Amino acid sequence: MIPNQCSFCRGTLAEGKTEFMVRIGSEIIVIKDVPAYICDQCNESYFTPDTSRRIDAILEAVRTGPVCGKPLAAIEVRMEG
Ligand SMILES: [Zn+2]
After folding, report:
1. Is 43 left (phi over 0), alpha (psi -120 to 50) or beta?
2. How far is the CA of 78 from the centre of ligand 1 (A)?
């Protein structure tokens, strides 16, 4: 389930909302207003199993057909070295 402290930095998790970003092929999908538990120190986000399922459902809808969304510009930069 959801840890009550961050497993990376031991910071405290607070309930909030975040953006979930994932790349599918050449498209970047950003899901806004995702309920999450967010670390107050490193901003790592944790999702409940229910939220993860809803994210998966949205990504599946994006993969399999047109979905109502707003196209965004994305900039891709490669880190050198
Ligand atoms: Zn943290």
Report:
1. left
2. 25
